[in-house]
Specification:
CATH class of the largest domain in chain A: Alpha Beta
Largest sheet of chain A: 6 strands, mixed
CATH topology of the largest domain in chain A: Molybdenum Cofactor Biosythetic Enzyme, Chain A
Largest interface: A-B, 112 and 113 residues
Distance between the termini of chain A: 30 Å
Oligomer: homodimer
Number of strands of chain A: 28
Structural class of chain A: alpha/beta
Chain lengths: 402, 402
C-alpha cells in the first residue's frame, strides 16, 4: 500500500491544466489569476493631496509669509489648476491633484480663514512636500502588481480595478460531478427507516468545493446497481472535467465502483493509502484525462480525503502557485502503532503569547462526524514515528484551506 | 475624539437584530444558525457495521468454532436480518445494520472463503463487539448538536442533513447599499484623465462582504453634488437595512456626506476615531434604526474600517455568538508617538515551531493599497503604549475574518 505522500505525488503526476476564461473582475474572488496585472498608470497617477486645507509655495513660507489670500479652489476630480501668485494659496481637497507652483499642503486644522485670507497657526512648522502622495511613489506604470498563479482575494479587487481592468483572465471553473453511492442513503426531508442513513457526504463535498471557489458542481446519488452506476458514470465521463465519487470503494460485495470505473475506461492509478481515515481511497484517470477520485463513504473519511487531496489538487490544476503551510503545538501525547499517516482532528486555541495550541479530538469511528464540529482542521501524524510528544510542533491542515 | 474601542461600543449599542428566514440547508454556508439543531435519531441510528467481512456470534468463537457456513448476506441499506444458527455466520458489508444474534465482525482480510464456508486466520484474535459502531454512541436522539448563533461551515452541512433537516432557520441576508462618492472616480473600463482615479473602494467593500456571506449588496456611485446625494441616500434609507458610504466624510469643501446624512434624518453617533488609518470615520442611525457607516475614501482606510467594524458588527447583528481571537509575534520593534490606535498591516510566517511571526508592512500613505497585497491582516497597536518590542505578542485581525 502506498503512503499519503506517494498518493499525492501520483495524483500530481496526472495534473491537468484547467482552461482560462475572461470574467468580470467583480466575479473573480477565489479564482486563480491567469494573466499578470500591470499598473495602468503611475500610482498615484499624479501628485495627490492627502489632506483638506491649502496648497502653498514652500518658498513663500521660507520668506516669512504666514497669511495667504485664497486665489482659487482645487477639488478632487477637477483638472489641475496653477497658483499664479506665489504669495497666495489655493484651497485644496483630499484626493485632488496638486496645483502647479505649489509644493506644500497646510491642513485645515492649522489655519484660520477670514475674508478669503488663510492665516497659519504660529505654532505650526510645515515641511516641504508634506501631505503630498508623490506620483509613482507606490509603483510606476507597467509594474507587475499581481502575478499569474495568484489566488484572488477581496483586497486584490481594489488593485485590479485601479489598474483599469474590468475583465481579467482567470482559471475556468471546472465542471465537477459528485456521485454518492449506496442503497442505505436517504435524502433529508424524505421518510427514513431504522436501517437507513441520511445522505450527507455528497452535499458536504459540494459545499466544501463551493467555498473554495468551485461553483460548477453537480451532485447525483446512485443506488448500488452496477448497470445504473455504469450508465451514469459513462455519461458524466463525457460532460465532466472531474469526477468525485463517495462510497462503494471498499471490499464489500456491493462495492462495485472500482470495477465499474475500470469498465467505463477509467485507468486505476492507485487503490488504498496507508492512512487513517480514508484507507480505501481510489484514484484513476478518465478517457479524457479527467481526474477521478473515489472516496470511502464514511463521513470523516470523505471530508478528510476531500480536504487533503482534492481541494489542493484542484487549485494546483487551476494554476495556484502558493500554499500556506501551518504548524501547531500538540497539547497531548499521542501514541499509535500502525504504520500509517494519521489525520487527527484538532481544536485550536490561539494563545495570547502568539502560539497555536492544538487539542486532539479523537472521533469515535470514521462515521462519527458529529465530533468534528468545533474542530478547526487536522494534524498530520506521519508514519515514521509512533509517538508524538506534548508541545511538539506538527503540520496542520485547516478544514477551510487558506 | 473617541478611541477605537469606544467607537465599537457605540456601534454595538445600536445593534439591530436581523430577521431570520428558512432556507435550503445547501445554501446556508456562511449564515448564522437561528434554531438549534437536534439529532433526529440516535447516531448511529442502529448498531452499524464498519468493515466488510462476516458477522458472527462471539460466543461460538469462544467455544472454539473457527469456520462458519455463510447463512445469509446483510447489505447496507437492507432491513435487519437474523443469524439463525449461532455456528453459522452472515456475510456483511460496511454500513449495514448488525444482524440479530451477532456481536462480532471479522474483517474480510482475516478470512478465507471456500464453498460458502468462511475460515478464520488462525493468527487472528477477535474481540467481542469489534467493528460495530454502537447505536447512539456518538450522540442520542434529541441531543443538541449545533446551537443558535453558530456560523455554518461546510462540515456542518453533513451534520445538519444527517439530522434530516432539508431546510433550516438562519439569519436573513440584510439588504446592504454601498455608496461611493467623489467626482474624481472613474470605473475600470472607462477612459480616464490624468487627474482622475479608478473607482475601487465600493467594489472592494462589496466583495469583502460577499466573501463573509452577505450576498444582498447593491453598489452605486455618486458625484459630489448635495442634491444628487440627498436624493439617492433618501431612497436607500427606505429600501436598505444597512448603508455603507465611502468618501466625502473629511473636512473638504466637497465633503457633504455628514451634512447630507443628517438632512436625510440620520442621527450622528460619532465622527472621527483616534485611529490610523480611518480617522474620519462617521457613524449614525437611520430613521428605521439602520446602521449607517460612512468611511473615509482612502483605500487602506476603507478596507481596514470595513474589516474592523462593519464585518464583525454585521455578523453580531445576525446573531453570531463566537469570534476567534488571534495573536501573533511582532518581528520588529515599532515606535510611534501619536495617541491613537494604529492598525498596521502585517505579513505572517507560520514558523515550524508553531509560532506565528508577523512582519509589519508599512504603507506609504493610506492611499497605498498596493502595499497591502501579500499581507494577511493587521495588528492592533493600542494607544496606551508607544513602543512595541520585537517578539511581543499582539492581537491580529485577518483580512478574511475567520
Amino acid at each position: 500500500m502506498i503512503s499519503s505522500q506517494e498518493a499525492m505525488n501520483l495524483i500530481l503526476d496526472q495534473l491537468p491544466i484547467i482552461n482560462k476564461e475572461k470574467i468580470n473582475t467583480l466575479q473573480s474572488v477565489g479564482r486563480i489569476l491567469k494573466e499578470p496585472i500591470y499598473a495602468e498608470r503611475d500610482q498615484p497617477p499624479f501628485d495627490r493631496v492627502t489632506m483638506d486645507g491649502i496648497a502653498i509655495s514652500y518658498e513663500a513660507l521660507k520668506r516669512g509669509v504666514n497669511q495667504f489670500s485664497i486665489e482659487n479652489t482645487q477639488f478632487a476630480g477637477d483638472a489641475q489648476i496653477a497658483l499664479k501668485d506665489k504669495n497666495f494659496c489655493i484651497e485644496i481637497m483630499t484626493g485632488a491633484i496638486l496645483p502647479k507652483n505649489t509644493d506644500c499642503i497646510i491642513p485645515i486644522e492649522w489655519i484660520k480663514t477670514n475674508n478669503g485670507i488663510a492665516v497659519l497657526d504660529t505654532n505650526y512648522q510645515p515641511q516641504k512636500l508634506q501631505y503630498i502622495h508623490r506620483q509613482g511613489s507606490d509603483h510606476q506604470k507597467y509594474t507587475e502588481v499581481l502575478g499569474i498563479g495568484h489566488k484572488i482575494e477581496p483586497m486584490d479587487i481594489s488593485l485590479i480595478l485601479s489598474c483599469g481592468k474590468k475583465y481579467i483572465e482567470v482559471s475556468s471553473d471546472p465542471k465537477i460531478c459528485i456521485i454518492s453511492n449506496g442503497n442505505e442513503l436517504i435524502a433529508a426531508g424524505e421518510p427514513i427507516l431504522p436501517h437507513q442513513i441520511r445522505m450527507s457526504n455528497g452535499p458536504a463535498i459540494m459545499v466544501m468545493l463551493e467555498q473554495q471557489g468551485f461553483k460548477n458542481c453537480e451532485y447525483i446519488h446512485l443506488v448500488d446497481d452496477k448497470n445504473i452506476q455504469q450508465e451514469h458514470i459513462k455519461k458524466h465521463l463525457i460532460c465532466s472535467d472531474i469526477l468525485i465519487l463517495s462510497g462503494g470503494v471498499s471490499m464489500g460485495k456491493a462495492d462495485f465502483i472500482p470495477q465499474v470505473l475500470q469498465e467505463c475506461g477509467v485507468k486505476n492509478i492507485f487503490h488504498k493509502i496507508r492512512q487513517r481515515p480514508g484507507k480505501p481511497m481510489w484514484f484513476g484517470i478518465g478517457p479524457k484525462k479527467q481526474l477521478i477520485f473515489a472516496l470511502p463513504g464514511n463521513p470523516v473519511s470523505t471530508i478528510t480525503c476531500c480536504r487533503h487531496y482534492i481541494v489542493p489538487v484542484l487549485q494546483r490544476a487551476c494554476g495556484r502557485d502558493f500554499f500556506i503551510d501551518e504548524y501547531v503545538k500538540l497539547q497531548q501525547q499521542i501514541k499509535f502503532q500502525p504504520d500509517l499517516t494519521y489525520f487527527l482532528p484538532v481544536r485550536l486555541v490561539n494563545s495570547e503569547n502568539g502560539e497555536i495550541k492544538a487539542y486532539p479530538v479523537e472521533t469515535n469511528t470514521s462515521g462519527d462526524f458529529a465530533s468534528l464540529i468545533g474542530t478547526d482542521g487536522y494534524i498530520e501524524l506521519v508514519s515514521k514515528s509512533n509517538l508524538f510528544e506534548e508541545s511538539e510542533s506538527i503540520k496542520f491542515f485547516r478544514w477551510k484551506m487558506p
